[in-house]
Amino acid sequence: MYTLTVVVCLCWIVPYVVDSNLTGGGFGSQYSWVAWEEAKNMAKSTNKPIMVLFHKTWCGACKNLKPKFANTKKLLELSEEFIMVNVEDDEEPSTDGQFMIDGGYIPRIVFLDSQGNIRPEYYNKLRGEKYKYFYPSADQIVTTMIEVISSIDQKREL
Fold it and tell me: Which of 20, 114, 136, 142 could form a disulfide with 43 if both were Cys (CB 3.0 to 4.6 A apart)?
């Protein structure tokens, strides 16, 4: 009976670990997710901007965004131009609130340049002054990603 209990417990724990680390917490395993600790160095060496997705496992709006994010081909294509960071639950990279530009709501997406500087000018332009970094649809994320890439390309040409 003891062995059976251990096996049942492991079967419950292992899928959760695999889901969090390999599938992007439901946002898509096809994305090249990078841990925050690695993201800044990768961004500098590749000269790519960073896109940080903040979400919580219990959040209804986050759950609603997951399949939209995971199944949008254009978003996946554009993600190759970014260092993609998926921050779930208590994994937030900073305790000083720097990523809470206009609040700590979730889900929210923040863009950083290749040097790791937060770029607050890249936000969901379809939102009002509140919750500017909230994206209820993949199309809105794609629009901002294109804006970031276009801005970077213009600077490279100078």
Answer: 114
Model confidence over 119-128: pLDDT tens digits? 999 999 998 8
- Could you tell me the two tokens for 6? 């251990």
Q: State the Cα torsion 8-10-14-17 to the nearest 10°.
A: 120
Is the Cα dihedral 94, 80, 78, 24 positive or negative? negative
Distance CA 155, CA 113 (A): 12
Q: What CA–CA distances, in Å, run from 146 to 7, 63, 91?
A: 47, 24, 27
Residue 138 has pLDDT above 90, yes or no: yes
DSSP state, residue 54: E
- Convert the pLDDT of each residue in 41-78 to its tens digit: 999 999 999 999 999 999 999 999 999 999 999 999 99
Residue reference for tokens 């939209």: 68
Residue type, 158: L
Find out whether 28 and 65 touch, Cβ atoms under 8 Å: no
